[in-house]
Design a protein that fits this description.
The protein is mainly beta. 10% of the residues lie in helices and 40% in strands. The strands form three sheets. It has a five-stranded antiparallel β-sheet, with helices on one face. A four-stranded antiparallel β-sheet has the order 3-11-12-6, with no helix packed on it. A hairpin with a 2-residue loop joins strand 11 (156-162) and strand 12 (165-172). It is globular and about 45 Å long. The protein starts with 18 loop residues before the first helix and ends in a 6-residue tail after the last strand.
Amino acid sequence: MSAPAFSPATTVNAAGPTAAELLAFALRTAADPDVVAALPLDPEGRTWIRLDGPGGSEAWLIGWPPGTGTGWHDHAESRGAFATAQGRLTEHSLSVRLPSEGWQSLHLASGVDRSRRLGAGAGRAFGEHHVHEVLNESATEHAISVHAYYPPLPLIRRYSRSGPVLHLEHVERPADWQ
């Protein structure tokens, strides 16, 4: 999908933006009605526009039709943040760091699941290897959010989950989603 890139100004440290700086960018951008209005919405599937993130980060404006989600995934060695611009998103995440390689299935201990709801104006920062899924659980309303990652995403690992068992399904590279 080709669309204009937006680049709200920000300052970052020499090592690239921190998760807190990515969150500040996501919140600021999500509050910009001109950026949010630029996203075409599709009733059937997610839509997105690539944004110019701060300090060389990768950023996206994403539209979520009712009932859509990402499935369980991580962003490898990238830290990140996202903020809801419109609607409400739910994030389910794991409070433990998983091994980054060398496994296909893991049995998760009890008590590692976390959930949070993020309405318009709310956001979330996270570190490397953060495993989560993001959902628009509304049956009637679109949600829109801003996501930023640094370093730019080298890959996304996709997982399936059955109760406490997390299974690595496949790995996506940037060419798969850009």
